[in-house]
Write a structure and sequence with these properties.
254 residues, alpha/beta, Rossmann fold, 7 helices, 18% strand
């Protein structure tokens, strides 16, 4: 894919923009159409980033369920979605479709209405065993092929694992609909270029190694500052940009 062209982007469940930042690190140029984010603190953070010139300017919509997708039919090159993980997370009750925070049906309707060329999405590892089959079946019925893999913050030099599932869907080149579930779930370690061991936490880095400290785009530590709980929640729900970058490079490889 030609990364030099600006991709018209619709961002759902944007959070603090971790997926966008990851794609920028991968050299992808985005032209946002809108950010969709319902959490007040996250939306305020996006406004602050836009005003500071750290993110491209675009309107912020507050509800994935009511966004006017059909108004953008044929005008979305890529849809980004870090949709809620609570229905699938091992840290919760794993209610799946019974969870009121289950937003995939609304996102699927949005995909059908605006028909983006690409979709790049993130969720927790638990989605692999709960809900992902339905997602892929829906994508297949809509005429998309797809790849998926597990990627971790540890792989890009962080001192914690923070393993996440990423998937990339593309319009089928023949314009045909896929029948059934295409079982193309991959593990990033099997597809990525071999990763040489990085320095352990607390030790000097190798000369070839990229800076291993993953910094928050919110800036600085959170202890003793205003909105500490909101900041921690935003970071906890957000996507590590370095991991999103790795996932994109692997899944978008020819």
């Amino acid at each position: 894919m030609d990364n030099s062209k600006k991709l018209r982007c619709l961002s759902l469940c944007t959070g603090y923009g971790g997926i966008e930042l990851g794609l920028e690190r991968a050299g992808v140029s985005l032209q946002p159409i809108a950010y969709v984010e319902r959490e007040a603190f996250a939306a305020a953070n996006l406004v602050a980033k836009i005003e500071a010139g750290k993110m491209a300017e675009a309107p912020i919509w507050t509800d994935v369920k009511t966004f006017p997708y059909s108004d953008f039919y044929g005008r979305v090159d890529i849809m980004l979605a870090g949709y809620p993980c609570q229905p699938f997370s091992a840290a919760g009750q794993r209610k799946g479709e019974a969870d009121e925070r289950h937003l995939w049906p609304y996102i699927a309707n949005g995909i059908a209405a605006c028909q983006p060329r690409l979709i790049f999405a993130e969720n927790v590892e638990g989605h692999l065993t709960l809900g992902l089959k339905n997602v892929f079946e829906d994508l297949g019925r809509m005429g998309y092929s797809y790849k998926a893999g597990l990627f971790s913050a540890e792989e890009v030099g962080a001192s914690h694992r923070r393993k996440r599932l990423f998937w990339l869907a593309m319009e089928d080149s023949n314009g045909t609909r896929l029948e059934g579930l295409k079982r193309d779930v991959i593990n990033s370690k099997g597809w990525a270029q071999p990763i040489r061991p990085v320095a352990s936490p607390g030790f000097c880095q190798h000369e070839w190694e990229r800076p291993r400290t993953i910094k928050s785009e919110l800036g600085g530590a959170v202890n003793g500052v205003r909105n500490r709980v909101d900041r921690l929640r935003l970071l906890g729900n957000g996507v590590v940009p370095h991991t999103a970058e790795l996932a994109w490079r692997v899944l978008n490889a020819d």
